[in-house]
Amino acid sequence: MRGRSVIPSPAPPEAVLAAIRADGREWRESVVPPELREELRYRVEVRVKGNRFRLALPSRLEGPENVTLHGTVSPAPDGGSIVRTRFRSSSPTFWVVVAGAGALTLSANLAWGLFLLAAAALLGGLDAWRGSRLDEENDAVAAYLAERLRTAVVRAAEPGAGREVPTGRRHPVPRDNVLPERG
Questions:
Q1: What separation in angstroms does the CA of 93 have from each of 48, 61, 96, 97, 100?
Q2: What DSSP string describes 92-160?
Q3: pTM for this structure?
Q4: Closest among 85, 94, 95 to 142, alpha carbons compared
Q5: Domain annotation covers residue 98
Q6: How far apart are alpha carbons 55 and 141 in whole angstroms?
Q7: CATH number of the CATH domain containing 14
Q8: Contact 61, 40 (CB under 8 A)
Q9: Is residue 143 part of a domain?
Q10: From CA 16, how far away is CA 7, in angstroms rounded?
Q11: DSSP bridge pairs for 53
Q12: Euclidean distance between CA atoms 25 and 37, whole angstroms
């Protein structure tokens, strides 16, 4: 997955979205690679709304780059579905705040206001450019998110997949009702 990618699946869109949603219920931190756990990244956050989804692996450390995988699932013309994805880096919210500060400063000091607006535009553009260059070969978080997505898409095509049954539980419980030991 280089920046943007397309993943075909023989499963219908509903099954793919259900598999992505189910993957978000994985609560064991041991499934996250040790090098990412060292960055205090423990659990993938999954959000599914309509035909769109977002996967993120946030860190509890201050300052690390947050990489998210955004995508859509749509029906394929010949049956099945098409998953379109793209990586994003950080959040443009900071640059919107800087631009807002620049706009407010315009009335008091034209030069500083224009400087802040230009800085927000430039740095926000660089942030978007960086997000379009993210890939799983150069970023461990992107690689992990891409792998989790591929696993969910493959699982959606398995027999019996895509039939979600609400249980009211926050975390999956093994059939024998014994939680695995942490190790």
A1: 21, 19, 5, 6, 11
A2: THHHHHHHHHHHHHHTT-HHHHHHHHHHHHHHHHHHHHHHHH-BTTT-HHHHHHHHHHHHHHHHHTSTT
A3: 0.65
A4: 85
A5: no
A6: 11
A7: 3.30.310.80
A8: yes
A9: yes
A10: 11
A11: 48, 71
A12: 18
Give the residue numbers spanning the domain of 69: 4-90+132-156
Amino acid at 155: R
Supply φ then ψ for residue 53, to 5 degrees. Answer: -145, 160
Closest CA to 164 of 6, 23, 61, 8: 23
- Round to whole Å and give the CA distance between 152 and 146: 10
pLDDT in tens, 6-38: 999 999 999 999 999 998 887 677 788 888 888
Kindly report, residue by residue over 84-131, the tens digit of the pLDDT. Answer: 998 877 655 565 666 677 777 777 777 877 777 777 777 767 666 655
Any domain includes 95: no
Count of domains for the chain? 1
Does a structural domain hold residue 139? Answer: yes
Distance of alpha carbon 48 from its chain centroid, rounded? 10
